[in-house]
Design goal:
Blueprint (H helix, E strand, L loop, with lengths): L1 H20 L1 H10 L2 H9 L9 E5 L4 H8 L10 E2 L5 H6 L5 E5 L3 H6 L7 E4 L4 H22 L22 H32 L2 H6 L4 H25 L1
Parallel strand pairs: 1-2, 1-3
Antiparallel strand pairs: 3-4
Length: 240
């Protein structure tokens, strides 16, 4: 047993020494746990930041002003007031991502609890902002309408929701963890396969086969050495 562990240790040590001589593989490992994590997390972000929005306020009521003032940074840029004739030109030029049209008599119909509609125009070429932003806009408008009508039920319990570990629900944090997990899976396969290919390329795999070693020892030596490299890379990525 002691001799077996000794063989596994020294074979793994040899794998590490061989890996450190492979500059291309080292560069790939460094990239996978540094720049690749950042690029993967930020490129897949679903957060809304400074989305451009405009309103066509044909109602000019207190409720419409409350709705317009409910949109502010950092998710939305300060809302701009435009006319209905400016909707298509500004959307075609990409000046606004969202244009909300509040019709005339909107507040009166809401107070009478009559059916009414708000038109939301979306520039769907900005796919992430279009999908997520439309949900935000709908929720904000519904919340302002409910507040204006005092329809919010008063609960004897004040429920306070706290998000641990990611209190601001920043999607890049979640995306970074996903990217780390993906790179761990990729490198776990790649490093072990590359180690075996190096053995065949250098002709040392025949030496291993004639040595007093079994397949389990060879396999375990590659697993612990490459696993150590991945563990160091993950630690570096999480800390820095």
């Amino acid at each position: 047993m002691k001799q077996s562990l000794y063989n596994i240790y020294h074979l793994g040590k040899k794998e590490l020494q061989t890996l450190f001589r492979d500059k291309i593989m080292l560069s790939l490992i460094v990239y996978s746990f540094s720049f690749a994590i950042y690029i993967g997390a930020t490129s897949a972000s679903t957060d809304i930041h400074h989305a451009s929005i405009a309103f066509v306020d044909e109602d000019r009521s207190t409720l419409s002003e409350r709705i317009i003032s409910a949109f502010y940074k950092p998710r939305f840029n300060p809302p701009q007031l435009i006319t209905f004739d400016e909707v298509n030109p500004t959307m075609d030029s990409g000046y606004y991502t969202f244009v909300v049209v509040i019709p005339s008599g909107f507040e009166k119909k809401i107070l009478k609890q009559e059916a009414t509609e708000i038109q939301l125009n979306i520039d769907a070429t900005r796919m992430t902002q279009a999908g997520v932003g439309s949900g935000y806009i709908q929720a904000i408008i519904n919340q302002e309408i409910a507040n204006s009508l005092n329809q919010k039920e008063i609960s004897p319990i004040n429920l306070v929701t706290t998000f641990k570990y990611n209190p601001n629900l920043i999607s890049t944090w979640f995306g970074g963890i996903n990217e780390i997990i993906s790179n761990i899976m990729m490198l776990s396969i790649l490093l072990s396969g590359a180690a075996l290919m190096r053995e065949r390329e250098h002709g040392t795999i025949e030496h291993l086969l004639v040595m007093p070693l079994n397949a389990a020892q060879i396999m375990l030596s590659k697993i612990w050495s490459m696993g150590l490299v991945i563990l160091i890379g993950v630690t570096f990525s999480l800390l820095f």
